[in-house]
């Protein structure tokens, strides 16, 4: 069983979502947003770092997934988003969590089955996949989607590791049996 935190970084609202993965089952644990209500960028980054750190210390996730920055049309917005993302990642790494990174397209593909899905489609599928009675706020839903994407990806990677190990053992047996001949 693993506890996964997903982060949807933003300079004003940073979404977070935590799910539990037990085999193939996914269960909702918590979700919300870290609001940075300040005009001063260093203060916003401090709030993101402290907020992520507080949530991780409270819930104790074992895995983390963060959405990668997409290139926005406004370079200033892209820089601020990158800084917010960096503050969140620094908080996660500071607490010894390994961070997996996924593009928005990968997350949407994993959750909705369509890489260009809109926010409403992501919210709807998060509700369905986690059997929620209430639709989470868009940034929280995006963070839950990142966690779900990681749960799917880590499950696939685990299966591939087992198959690779089994393949290596089979290759080893065939080599040793051919040497005996």
Biggest sheet, strands in spatial order?
3-2-1-4-5
How is the quaternary structure best described?
Answer: single chain
Fraction of residues in helix = 55-70%
Class computed from helices, strands and strand pairing: alpha/beta
Mean pLDDT: 88
Report the principal-axis shape.
Answer: globular
Give the count of helical stretches: 5
**Poorly predicted regions:** 173-181
What proportion strand? 15-25%
What is the rounded distance between the termini?
Answer: 45 Å
How many extended strands? 5
Notes on the protein architecture:
Helix content is 56%, strand content 20%. The chain has 181 residues and is an alpha/beta fold. Helix 3 packs across helix 5 and helix 4 (119-129) crosses helix 5 (138-180). Its cofactor is Mg(2+). It is an enzyme of class 3 (hydrolase). It catalyses: Endonucleolytic cleavage at a junction such as a reciprocal single-stranded crossover between two homologous DNA duplexes (Holliday junction).
List strands and helices in order, with pairings.
Layout: E1 2-8, E2 13-22, E3 25-35, H1 41-59, E4 63-67, H2 75-94, E5 99-102, H3 104-111, H4 119-129, H5 138-180
């Amino acid at each position: 069983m693993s506890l996964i935190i997903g982060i949807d970084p933003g300079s004003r609202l940073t979404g977070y979502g935590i799910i539990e993965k037990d085999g193939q089952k996914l269960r909702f644990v918590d979700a919300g947003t870290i609001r940075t209500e300040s005009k001063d960028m260093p203060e916003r980054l401090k709030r993101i770092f402290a907020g992520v750190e507080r949530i991780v210390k409270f819930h104790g996730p074992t895995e983390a997934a963060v959405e990668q920055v997409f290139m926005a049309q406004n370079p200033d917005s892209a820089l601020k988003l990158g800084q917010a993302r960096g503050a969140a990642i620094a908080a996660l790494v500071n607490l010894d969590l390994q961070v997996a990174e996924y593009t928005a397209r990968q997350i949407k593909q994993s959750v909705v089955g369509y890489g260009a899905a809109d926010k409403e489609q992501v919210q709807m599928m998060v509700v369905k996949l986690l059997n929620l009675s209430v639709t989470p706020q868009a940034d929280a839903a995006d963070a839950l989607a990142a966690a779900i994407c990681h749960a799917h990806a880590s499950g696939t990677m685990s299966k591939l590791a087992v198959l690779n190990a089994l393949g290596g053992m089979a290759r080893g047996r065939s080599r040793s049996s051919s040497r005996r001949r």
